[in-house]
Amino acid sequence: MRKHKPTGRGQKADWRRRSAFIFLGLLCFCFVSGESSGKAQDEMQTPAQQQQVVTPLKELVDEVEHKNSQILAARHGWKAAEQVPSQVSTLPDPQIVVQQLNVGSPRPFAGYTNSDFAYTGLGISQDIPYPGKLRLRGEAAARDADAAQRRFDTVRRTVIEQLKAAYFHLAYIQSTLSVLDRDGKLLEQIEKLAEAHYRVGQGSQAEVLKAQLQRTELLKEVAMHHQEMWTLEAQLKQILNRAADSADLQTETLTETPLPYTSDELLARVRTANSEVGGEQEMVRRQSVQLEMARKDAYPDFNVQYSWQHTGPQFRDYYMLTLGVKIPIFRSRKQHPEVAQAVEELNRSRREYEGAVQQAYFDVRDQYLAAKTGDELLKIYREGLIPQSTATFQAGLTAYQSNRMDLQAVLSSFRDVLNYDKDYWQTLADHETALAQLERLTGITLH
After folding, report:
1. Across 269-402, where does the E strand assignment appear?
2. Looking at the domain assignment, is residue 121 inside a domain?
3. pLDDT tens digits for 93-142?
4. H-assigned helices in 43-83
5. CATH value at residue 361
6. Containing structural domain, residue 63
7. Contact 183/218 with Cβ under 8 angstroms?
8. Number of structural domains, the chain?
9. DSSP string for 171-231
10. What distance in Å separates the CA atoms of residue 66 and residue 4, rounded to the nearest whole number?
11. Distance between alpha carbon 313 and the CA centroid of its chain, in Å?
12. Distance CA 155, CA 149 (A)
Protein backbone atom coordinates (compact mmCIF):
# COMPACT_ATOMS: atom_id res chain seq x y z
CA MET A 1 0.00 0.00 0.00
CA ARG A 2 1.45 3.38 -0.99
CA LYS A 3 2.02 5.87 1.80
CA HIS A 4 0.29 9.22 1.56
CA LYS A 5 2.72 12.14 1.53
CA PRO A 6 1.76 15.10 3.63
CA THR A 7 0.84 18.28 1.86
CA GLY A 8 2.91 21.48 2.17
CA ARG A 9 0.58 22.91 4.80
CA GLY A 10 0.79 19.68 6.85
CA GLN A 11 4.58 19.66 6.65
CA LYS A 12 4.68 23.24 7.87
CA ALA A 13 2.45 22.49 10.87
CA ASP A 14 4.45 19.38 11.70
CA TRP A 15 7.65 21.41 11.61
CA ARG A 16 6.15 23.97 13.96
CA ARG A 17 5.16 21.30 16.48
CA ARG A 18 8.62 19.73 16.40
CA SER A 19 10.26 23.13 16.82
CA ALA A 20 8.04 23.93 19.80
CA PHE A 21 8.87 20.63 21.52
CA ILE A 22 12.58 21.15 20.88
CA PHE A 23 12.37 24.71 22.23
CA LEU A 24 10.50 23.59 25.36
CA GLY A 25 12.98 20.78 25.90
CA LEU A 26 15.92 23.18 25.73
CA LEU A 27 14.15 25.60 28.06
CA CYS A 28 13.42 22.82 30.58
CA PHE A 29 17.07 21.81 30.46
CA CYS A 30 18.12 25.38 31.17
CA PHE A 31 15.53 25.58 33.97
CA VAL A 32 16.78 22.42 35.65
CA SER A 33 20.37 23.62 35.31
CA GLY A 34 19.45 26.98 36.78
CA GLU A 35 17.55 25.34 39.64
CA SER A 36 20.53 23.15 40.47
CA SER A 37 22.89 26.10 40.43
CA GLY A 38 20.39 28.06 42.56
CA LYS A 39 20.39 25.31 45.18
CA ALA A 40 24.16 25.33 45.18
CA GLN A 41 24.20 29.08 45.64
CA ASP A 42 21.73 28.84 48.51
CA GLU A 43 24.56 27.71 50.76
CA MET A 44 26.85 30.40 49.46
CA GLN A 45 26.88 34.13 50.11
CA THR A 46 25.90 36.70 47.53
CA PRO A 47 28.76 38.59 45.79
CA ALA A 48 28.12 41.65 47.94
CA GLN A 49 28.28 39.51 51.06
CA GLN A 50 31.46 37.74 49.92
CA GLN A 51 33.29 41.06 50.02
CA GLN A 52 32.44 41.51 53.70
CA VAL A 53 34.17 39.71 56.53
CA VAL A 54 31.87 37.61 58.71
CA THR A 55 31.86 38.93 62.28
CA PRO A 56 31.32 36.25 64.94
CA LEU A 57 28.84 37.07 67.68
CA LYS A 58 31.36 36.41 70.45
CA GLU A 59 33.64 39.15 69.13
CA LEU A 60 30.78 41.64 69.19
CA VAL A 61 29.89 40.65 72.77
CA ASP A 62 33.48 41.34 73.87
CA GLU A 63 33.44 44.64 72.00
CA VAL A 64 30.16 45.85 73.46
CA GLU A 65 31.33 45.16 77.03
CA HIS A 66 34.30 47.50 76.51
CA LYS A 67 32.74 50.20 74.32
CA ASN A 68 29.02 50.52 75.01
CA SER A 69 28.25 53.84 76.72
CA GLN A 70 25.50 52.47 78.97
CA ILE A 71 27.72 49.66 80.25
CA LEU A 72 30.64 52.02 80.86
CA ALA A 73 28.42 54.51 82.69
CA ALA A 74 26.96 51.77 84.91
CA ARG A 75 30.46 50.47 85.64
CA HIS A 76 31.66 53.93 86.71
CA GLY A 77 28.58 54.31 88.91
CA TRP A 78 29.37 51.01 90.60
CA LYS A 79 33.04 51.92 91.14
CA ALA A 80 32.00 55.28 92.56
CA ALA A 81 29.57 53.64 94.99
CA GLU A 82 32.36 51.39 96.27
CA GLN A 83 34.20 54.47 97.56
CA VAL A 84 31.36 55.56 99.85
CA PRO A 85 31.45 53.01 102.73
CA SER A 86 34.84 54.10 104.06
CA GLN A 87 33.77 57.74 103.90
CA VAL A 88 30.56 57.44 105.90
CA SER A 89 31.94 54.96 108.44
CA THR A 90 34.81 57.26 109.47
CA LEU A 91 34.64 59.77 112.29
CA PRO A 92 33.95 63.39 111.31
CA ASP A 93 37.02 65.53 110.83
CA PRO A 94 38.25 67.15 114.05
CA GLN A 95 38.10 70.92 114.42
CA ILE A 96 41.02 73.00 115.64
CA VAL A 97 40.26 76.36 117.29
CA VAL A 98 42.69 79.22 117.84
CA GLN A 99 41.61 81.95 120.30
CA GLN A 100 43.11 85.31 121.22
CA LEU A 101 41.42 87.57 123.77
CA ASN A 102 42.42 91.23 124.18
CA VAL A 103 41.20 93.78 126.69
CA GLY A 104 41.29 97.47 125.82
CA SER A 105 42.88 97.19 122.35
CA PRO A 106 41.65 95.73 119.05
CA ARG A 107 45.16 94.90 117.89
CA PRO A 108 46.04 91.17 118.06
CA PHE A 109 48.30 90.18 120.92
CA ALA A 110 48.20 93.71 122.39
CA GLY A 111 46.14 92.83 125.44
CA TYR A 112 48.96 91.40 127.55
CA THR A 113 50.16 94.92 128.40
CA ASN A 114 46.69 96.22 129.18
CA SER A 115 44.99 93.50 131.23
CA ASP A 116 45.67 90.35 133.16
CA PHE A 117 42.66 88.74 131.50
CA ALA A 118 44.15 88.64 127.98
CA TYR A 119 45.09 85.19 126.78
CA THR A 120 45.92 83.07 123.73
CA GLY A 121 44.20 79.71 123.39
CA LEU A 122 44.48 76.61 121.24
CA GLY A 123 41.83 73.88 121.23
CA ILE A 124 40.62 70.80 119.34
CA SER A 125 37.14 69.27 119.21
CA GLN A 126 35.85 65.96 117.90
CA ASP A 127 32.24 64.87 117.20
CA ILE A 128 31.63 61.26 118.20
CA PRO A 129 28.40 59.57 117.07
CA TYR A 130 26.71 57.07 119.34
CA PRO A 131 28.46 53.67 119.19
CA GLY A 132 27.22 51.60 116.25
CA LYS A 133 26.00 54.49 114.08
CA LEU A 134 29.15 54.69 111.96
CA ARG A 135 29.15 50.93 111.43
CA LEU A 136 25.53 51.02 110.26
CA ARG A 137 26.24 53.91 107.90
CA GLY A 138 29.11 51.97 106.37
CA GLU A 139 26.98 48.85 106.07
CA ALA A 140 24.18 50.80 104.36
CA ALA A 141 26.66 52.30 101.92
CA ALA A 142 28.09 48.84 101.24
CA ARG A 143 24.60 47.61 100.41
CA ASP A 144 24.22 50.56 98.06
CA ALA A 145 27.48 49.57 96.39
CA ASP A 146 26.26 45.98 96.01
CA ALA A 147 23.03 47.27 94.50
CA ALA A 148 25.06 49.43 92.10
CA GLN A 149 27.01 46.33 91.08
CA ARG A 150 23.74 44.51 90.43
CA ARG A 151 22.52 47.46 88.35
CA PHE A 152 25.71 47.35 86.34
CA ASP A 153 25.24 43.64 85.72
CA THR A 154 21.62 44.27 84.73
CA VAL A 155 22.64 46.94 82.25
CA ARG A 156 25.40 44.72 80.86
CA ARG A 157 23.08 41.75 80.37
CA THR A 158 20.33 43.91 78.88
CA VAL A 159 22.67 45.51 76.35
CA ILE A 160 24.13 42.13 75.39
CA GLU A 161 20.61 40.78 74.92
CA GLN A 162 19.77 43.76 72.69
CA LEU A 163 22.94 43.13 70.71
CA LYS A 164 22.13 39.45 70.22
CA ALA A 165 18.50 40.13 69.28
CA ALA A 166 19.56 42.66 66.64
CA TYR A 167 22.31 40.31 65.42
CA PHE A 168 19.92 37.36 65.06
CA HIS A 169 17.34 39.52 63.30
CA LEU A 170 20.01 40.80 60.93
CA ALA A 171 21.13 37.23 60.27
CA TYR A 172 17.50 36.34 59.48
CA ILE A 173 17.22 39.27 57.05
CA GLN A 174 20.47 38.38 55.30
CA SER A 175 19.48 34.72 55.00
CA THR A 176 16.05 35.73 53.70
CA LEU A 177 17.64 37.97 51.07
CA SER A 178 19.69 34.98 49.91
CA VAL A 179 16.48 32.94 49.65
CA LEU A 180 14.76 35.72 47.71
CA ASP A 181 17.73 36.01 45.37
CA ARG A 182 17.68 32.27 44.68
CA ASP A 183 13.91 32.07 44.26
CA GLY A 184 13.93 35.18 42.11
CA LYS A 185 16.09 33.37 39.59
CA LEU A 186 13.72 30.40 39.65
CA LEU A 187 10.78 32.72 39.12
CA GLU A 188 12.53 34.35 36.17
CA GLN A 189 12.91 30.95 34.57
CA ILE A 190 9.23 30.17 35.26
CA GLU A 191 8.36 33.40 33.49
CA LYS A 192 10.41 32.38 30.46
CA LEU A 193 8.69 28.99 30.45
CA ALA A 194 5.27 30.73 30.51
CA GLU A 195 6.32 32.90 27.58
CA ALA A 196 7.41 29.80 25.67
CA HIS A 197 4.02 28.19 26.28
CA TYR A 198 2.34 31.35 25.09
CA ARG A 199 4.40 31.47 21.87
CA VAL A 200 3.46 27.94 20.87
CA GLY A 201 -0.18 28.44 21.73
CA GLN A 202 -0.19 26.27 24.86
CA GLY A 203 -0.66 29.15 27.29
CA SER A 204 -2.31 32.52 27.62
CA GLN A 205 -0.98 36.01 27.99
CA ALA A 206 -2.61 36.17 31.42
CA GLU A 207 -0.23 33.46 32.67
CA VAL A 208 2.76 35.49 31.49
CA LEU A 209 1.40 38.55 33.28
CA LYS A 210 0.85 36.54 36.49
CA ALA A 211 4.48 35.38 36.42
CA GLN A 212 5.65 38.95 35.89
CA LEU A 213 3.43 40.15 38.74
CA GLN A 214 4.94 37.53 41.02
CA ARG A 215 8.43 38.78 40.16
CA THR A 216 7.40 42.35 40.91
CA GLU A 217 6.07 41.33 44.34
CA LEU A 218 9.35 39.55 44.99
CA LEU A 219 11.28 42.72 44.14
CA LYS A 220 9.09 44.63 46.60
CA GLU A 221 9.96 42.15 49.36
CA VAL A 222 13.65 42.49 48.55
CA ALA A 223 13.45 46.29 48.83
CA MET A 224 11.60 46.11 52.17
CA HIS A 225 14.12 43.63 53.58
CA HIS A 226 17.00 45.85 52.49
CA GLN A 227 15.45 48.77 54.34
CA GLU A 228 15.06 46.65 57.48
CA MET A 229 18.64 45.41 57.15
CA TRP A 230 19.99 48.99 57.02
CA THR A 231 17.96 49.87 60.12
CA LEU A 232 19.42 46.89 61.99
CA GLU A 233 22.92 47.83 60.85
CA ALA A 234 22.43 51.30 62.33
CA GLN A 235 21.08 49.82 65.57
CA LEU A 236 24.08 47.51 65.94
CA LYS A 237 26.51 50.38 65.34
CA GLN A 238 24.72 52.41 68.00
CA ILE A 239 24.92 49.54 70.51
CA LEU A 240 28.60 48.95 69.69
CA ASN A 241 29.33 52.70 69.85
CA ARG A 242 30.75 52.62 66.33
CA ALA A 243 30.81 55.48 63.86
CA ALA A 244 27.77 55.76 61.61
CA ASP A 245 29.93 55.51 58.48
CA SER A 246 31.79 52.39 59.66
CA ALA A 247 31.65 49.17 57.66
CA ASP A 248 28.44 47.17 57.74
CA LEU A 249 28.30 43.83 59.54
CA GLN A 250 28.06 40.43 57.91
CA THR A 251 26.61 37.92 60.35
CA GLU A 252 27.28 34.25 60.77
CA THR A 253 24.76 31.83 59.33
CA LEU A 254 22.09 31.11 61.93
CA THR A 255 22.31 27.69 63.54
CA GLU A 256 20.07 26.15 66.16
CA THR A 257 21.53 26.33 69.67
CA PRO A 258 20.48 23.54 72.05
CA LEU A 259 19.01 24.29 75.48
CA PRO A 260 20.48 21.75 77.94
CA TYR A 261 18.41 22.95 80.93
CA THR A 262 15.00 22.02 82.21
CA SER A 263 12.39 24.55 83.24
CA ASP A 264 12.91 23.77 86.94
CA GLU A 265 16.67 24.25 86.65
CA LEU A 266 16.20 27.65 85.05
CA LEU A 267 13.62 28.75 87.63
CA ALA A 268 15.96 27.73 90.45
CA ARG A 269 18.53 30.22 89.16
CA VAL A 270 16.17 33.20 89.38
CA ARG A 271 16.79 34.02 93.05
CA THR A 272 20.54 33.43 92.85
CA ALA A 273 21.63 34.53 89.38
CA ASN A 274 19.06 37.07 88.17
CA SER A 275 20.69 40.51 88.48
CA GLU A 276 17.42 42.44 88.77
CA VAL A 277 16.17 40.15 91.54
CA GLY A 278 19.56 40.40 93.23
CA GLY A 279 19.39 44.19 93.11
CA GLU A 280 15.97 44.18 94.77
CA GLN A 281 17.27 41.79 97.40
CA GLU A 282 20.16 44.17 98.17
CA MET A 283 17.65 46.99 98.59
CA VAL A 284 15.76 44.90 101.16
CA ARG A 285 18.99 44.42 103.10
CA ARG A 286 19.80 48.10 102.77
CA GLN A 287 16.40 49.13 104.12
CA SER A 288 16.84 46.74 107.05
CA VAL A 289 20.06 48.54 107.92
CA GLN A 290 18.29 51.88 107.43
CA LEU A 291 15.70 50.82 110.00
CA GLU A 292 18.43 50.06 112.52
CA MET A 293 19.98 53.45 111.82
CA ALA A 294 16.64 55.17 112.42
CA ARG A 295 16.35 53.44 115.79
CA LYS A 296 19.92 54.42 116.64
CA ASP A 297 19.08 58.09 115.99
CA ALA A 298 17.10 58.02 119.23
CA TYR A 299 20.43 57.80 121.11
CA PRO A 300 22.60 60.88 121.76
CA ASP A 301 25.79 61.87 119.94
CA PHE A 302 28.81 63.33 121.73
CA ASN A 303 31.36 66.06 121.31
CA VAL A 304 34.76 66.18 123.05
CA GLN A 305 36.83 69.37 123.27
CA TYR A 306 40.25 70.01 124.74
CA SER A 307 41.80 73.47 124.92
CA TRP A 308 44.93 75.22 126.23
CA GLN A 309 45.07 78.89 127.26
CA HIS A 310 48.13 81.00 127.87
CA THR A 311 47.98 84.33 129.73
CA GLY A 312 50.86 86.49 130.81
CA PRO A 313 54.21 85.10 131.94
CA GLN A 314 53.31 85.77 135.54
CA PHE A 315 50.35 83.37 135.39
CA ARG A 316 50.15 79.65 134.91
CA ASP A 317 48.55 78.13 131.77
CA TYR A 318 44.98 76.87 131.73
CA TYR A 319 43.84 73.45 130.41
CA MET A 320 40.20 72.57 129.83
CA LEU A 321 38.40 69.35 128.78
CA THR A 322 34.76 69.64 127.68
CA LEU A 323 32.25 66.87 126.95
CA GLY A 324 29.09 67.80 125.02
CA VAL A 325 26.02 65.61 124.49
CA LYS A 326 23.38 66.14 121.78
CA ILE A 327 20.13 65.03 123.35
CA PRO A 328 17.28 64.01 120.99
CA ILE A 329 14.41 65.59 122.89
CA PHE A 330 12.03 65.92 119.90
CA ARG A 331 11.54 62.19 119.41
CA SER A 332 7.83 62.38 118.72
CA ARG A 333 8.45 64.77 115.82
CA LYS A 334 11.73 63.45 114.45
CA GLN A 335 12.92 60.00 115.55
CA HIS A 336 9.53 58.27 115.78
CA PRO A 337 8.43 59.36 112.25
CA GLU A 338 11.88 58.40 111.02
CA VAL A 339 11.46 54.87 112.32
CA ALA A 340 7.95 54.64 110.88
CA GLN A 341 9.26 55.80 107.52
CA ALA A 342 12.03 53.20 107.59
CA VAL A 343 9.49 50.46 108.38
CA GLU A 344 7.34 51.47 105.41
CA GLU A 345 10.37 51.65 103.13
CA LEU A 346 11.40 48.18 104.25
CA ASN A 347 7.95 46.77 103.53
CA ARG A 348 7.93 48.47 100.13
CA SER A 349 11.32 47.00 99.21
CA ARG A 350 10.14 43.53 100.26
CA ARG A 351 7.05 43.78 98.05
CA GLU A 352 9.18 44.99 95.14
CA TYR A 353 11.54 42.08 95.64
CA GLU A 354 8.65 39.60 95.59
CA GLY A 355 7.26 41.28 92.47
CA ALA A 356 10.63 41.09 90.73
CA VAL A 357 10.88 37.37 91.55
CA GLN A 358 7.41 36.64 90.18
CA GLN A 359 8.08 38.68 87.04
CA ALA A 360 11.34 36.82 86.49
CA TYR A 361 9.57 33.48 86.99
CA PHE A 362 7.00 34.43 84.35
CA ASP A 363 9.65 35.63 81.89
CA VAL A 364 11.70 32.45 82.32
CA ARG A 365 8.66 30.23 81.76
CA ASP A 366 7.56 32.29 78.77
CA GLN A 367 10.94 32.24 77.04
CA TYR A 368 11.50 28.57 77.88
CA LEU A 369 8.20 27.67 76.21
CA ALA A 370 9.08 29.88 73.25
CA ALA A 371 12.43 28.10 72.87
CA LYS A 372 10.92 24.63 73.15
CA THR A 373 8.13 25.50 70.72
CA GLY A 374 10.77 26.83 68.36
CA ASP A 375 12.59 23.48 68.58
CA GLU A 376 9.46 21.64 67.51
CA LEU A 377 8.64 24.09 64.72
CA LEU A 378 12.16 23.96 63.30
CA LYS A 379 11.95 20.18 63.17
CA ILE A 380 8.58 20.40 61.41
CA TYR A 381 9.99 22.82 58.86
CA ARG A 382 13.13 20.78 58.22
CA GLU A 383 11.52 17.35 58.08
CA GLY A 384 8.03 18.15 56.83
CA LEU A 385 6.94 21.47 55.41
CA ILE A 386 10.03 22.47 53.42
CA PRO A 387 10.72 19.11 51.72
CA GLN A 388 7.00 18.50 51.12
CA SER A 389 6.42 21.93 49.60
CA THR A 390 9.55 21.57 47.47
CA ALA A 391 8.39 18.20 46.17
CA THR A 392 4.93 19.64 45.45
CA PHE A 393 6.46 22.53 43.53
CA GLN A 394 8.74 20.28 41.49
CA ALA A 395 5.85 17.95 40.65
CA GLY A 396 3.66 20.87 39.64
CA LEU A 397 6.45 22.34 37.53
CA THR A 398 6.89 19.05 35.71
CA ALA A 399 3.15 18.85 35.08
CA TYR A 400 3.13 22.44 33.79
CA GLN A 401 5.97 21.68 31.40
CA SER A 402 3.86 18.92 29.87
CA ASN A 403 0.83 21.22 29.83
CA ARG A 404 -1.04 19.17 32.47
CA MET A 405 -1.32 21.97 35.07
CA ASP A 406 -1.99 25.67 34.86
CA LEU A 407 0.54 28.30 35.89
CA GLN A 408 -1.53 29.56 38.83
CA ALA A 409 -1.11 26.27 40.68
CA VAL A 410 2.65 26.31 39.98
CA LEU A 411 2.97 29.87 41.30
CA SER A 412 0.95 28.94 44.39
CA SER A 413 3.26 26.03 45.19
CA PHE A 414 6.26 28.25 44.48
CA ARG A 415 4.92 30.78 46.97
CA ASP A 416 4.53 28.03 49.55
CA VAL A 417 8.19 27.07 49.16
CA LEU A 418 9.26 30.71 49.51
CA ASN A 419 7.10 31.36 52.57
CA TYR A 420 8.20 28.19 54.37
CA ASP A 421 11.85 29.09 53.74
CA LYS A 422 11.34 32.56 55.19
CA ASP A 423 9.29 31.24 58.10
CA TYR A 424 12.06 28.77 58.91
CA TRP A 425 14.68 31.52 59.23
CA GLN A 426 12.27 33.71 61.19
CA THR A 427 11.51 30.86 63.61
CA LEU A 428 15.23 30.17 64.00
CA ALA A 429 15.93 33.85 64.77
CA ASP A 430 13.08 33.91 67.33
CA HIS A 431 14.43 30.72 68.91
CA GLU A 432 17.90 32.22 69.34
CA THR A 433 16.42 35.45 70.68
CA ALA A 434 14.47 33.51 73.31
CA LEU A 435 17.71 31.83 74.39
CA ALA A 436 19.39 35.24 74.65
CA GLN A 437 16.61 36.40 76.97
CA LEU A 438 17.04 33.27 79.09
CA GLU A 439 20.73 34.13 79.36
CA ARG A 440 19.83 37.55 80.73
CA LEU A 441 17.25 36.17 83.14
CA THR A 442 19.25 33.26 84.57
CA GLY A 443 22.91 34.12 83.96
CA ILE A 444 23.56 30.99 81.87
CA THR A 445 25.78 31.09 78.78
CA LEU A 446 24.48 29.44 75.60
CA HIS A 447 25.87 31.44 72.68
Report:
1. 301-310, 318-326
2. no
3. 999 999 888 877 777 766 666 666 778 899 999 999 999 999 999 999 99
4. 47-50, 57-67, 69-81
5. 1.20.1600.10
6. 46-91+129-297+334-442
7. yes
8. 1
9. HHHHHHHHHHHHHHHHHHHHHHHHHHHHHTTSS-HHHHHHHHHHHHHHHHHHHHHHHHHHH
10. 91
11. 79
12. 10
